[in-house]
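Students often ask why inverse folding is considered easier than folding. One informal answer: many sequences map to the same fold, so there is more than one right answer. In these notes we will look at a single instance of the problem. The structure comes first.
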């Protein structure tokens, strides 16, 4: 009987952390953050929102559709940028309640600037390379404590190197 108790306790010790490793079929992220944009050698701070839908194919691979909006008002000029990017999502789900991830996103950016009702806008290619960490707080909810992305855009005939930092809530649906 004592041997059975030890085997049962050991199996619980092994099984309980594995229970936290369930892979959701779909993850829906929404949050806010900060972006540092390189505007032809001048830096601009933008604040806004970020949302993403990730469908997981298995424990480590998924596909992400990422959308965001970023806004600033330097010197009474309205500047905004909206991204729409898609790509693979790689997750490491063996770290307990922590899920570090990385992604490569390709798509576009629509940016505009305006002053006194006159605006100028353009849509260009954009790419984002980055990742972050989600912390599971419930079976269906996680907190994305940080997502950091290096975003490349080609405005003003120049390659621009931008940084995007976001945080928010992840809702998890289904099970793989």
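Output (designed amino acids):
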């Amino acid at each position: 009987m004592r041997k059975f108790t030890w085997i049962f306790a050991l199996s619980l010790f092994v099984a309980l952390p594995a229970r936290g490793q369930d892979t959701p079929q779909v993850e829906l992220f929404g949050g806010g953050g900060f972006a540092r944009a390189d505007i032809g050698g001048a830096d601009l701070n933008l604040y806004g929102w970020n949302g993403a839908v990730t469908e997981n194919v298995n424990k480590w691979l998924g596909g992400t559709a990422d959308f965001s909006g970023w806004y600033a008002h330097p010197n009474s000029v309205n500047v905004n940028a909206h991204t729409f990017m898609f790509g693979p999502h790689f997750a490491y789900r063996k770290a307990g309640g922590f899920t570090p991830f990385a992604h490569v996103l390709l798509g576009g950016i629509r940016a505009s600037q305006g002053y006194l009702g006159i605006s100028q806008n353009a849509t260009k290619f954009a790419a984002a390379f980055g990742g972050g960490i989600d912390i599971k707080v419930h079976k269906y909810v996680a907190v994305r404590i940080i997502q950091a992305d290096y975003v490349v855009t080609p405005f003003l005939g120049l390659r621009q190197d931008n940084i995007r930092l976001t945080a928010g809530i992840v809702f998890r649906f289904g099970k793989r």
